[in-house]
Amino acid sequence: MANGSADVSAFQQALENNKKWASETDSKLFEKTAAGQSPQILWIGCSDSRVPETTVLNLKPGDVFTHRNIANVVSPTDLSLLSVVEFAVYHLKVKHIVVCGHSKCGGVQGSLQNVQLGGPLDIWLQPVRSLREKHAAELKGKSVDEQKEIMSKANVQQGIEVLRRIPVVIDAIKDRGLHIHGLIYDLASGKLEDVDCDETDDVAVLREDAFRRQAAVIR
């Protein structure tokens, strides 16, 4: 009962905080957001409660379109993520996509351990475990913290590779200069670090040839 009361109190406190925030915020912000949205950034991040995108970017409601999941996994079969990307890129015309991982990520840590996490988590983290396999030589002999850092960056880079093969993203990159960025958020400092995700022009051309949509002719 005590734990239940604490949970209710936390929720009630959140509602009270909302009332205070709403009363102290310039009403013009709400007028603007009620009229529609035109964010320039799509943020794909981890569900971790310590990495709220609008807060760490020091932006406001309406500035960032968001998709978050465990370990910021970008999968080509995730219909939820694909729908968010389609809406943000094709309809909202965002100018930037950010894939952001973070230090001390529980999903990354889970993928580095040979333990059963239970339920859908083991299935969900398979792409991250595959990265562990791919980077086994680089991970060997490293400390746990170093392994987490390597895996977090590799996971961001892998996510960007997947994004670059989504047809609507390819079109937006080519037609209107959509930019894709990789970041790691450091929980200890609150700062964002760039992740190198550059590619050569010839690689981009090959990917475009293979994945860009063409008008289909069905016979």
How would you sum up this structure, described in words?
It is a single chain. By secondary structure, the protein is of the alpha/beta class. The protein has one domain: Beta-carbonic Anhydrase, Chain A, CATH 3.40.1050.10. 52% of the residues lie in helices and 14% in strands. It contains 11 helices and 5 strands; from the N terminus they run ααβαβαβααααααββα. The protein has a 5-stranded mixed sheet with strand order 2-1-3-4-5. A hairpin with a 6-residue loop joins β4 and β5. α5 packs across α7. The longest helix has 23 residues. It is globular and about 55 Å long. The mean pLDDT is 94.
Structure summary, number of beta strands: 5
The separation of the N and C termini measures: 66 Å
CATH class: Alpha Beta
Q: Provide the spatial order of strands within the biggest beta sheet.
A: 2-1-3-4-5
- CATH superfamily grouping: Carbonic anhydrase
Secondary structure class reads: alpha/beta
SSE string, helices as H and strands as E: HHEHEHEHHHHHHEEH
Helix content: 40-55%
CATH topology: Beta-carbonic Anhydrase, Chain A
Q: Outline, from the CA principal axes?
A: globular
Whole-number average pLDDT?
94
Number of helical stretches of at least 4 residues: 11
**Count of folded domains:** 1
Instruction: Tell me what portion of residues adopts beta-strand conformation.
Output: 5-15%
Radius of gyration, whole Å: 20 Å
**Unreliable stretches:** none
Under the CATH scheme, the architecture is 3-Layer(aba) Sandwich
* Major sheet details: 5 strands, mixed
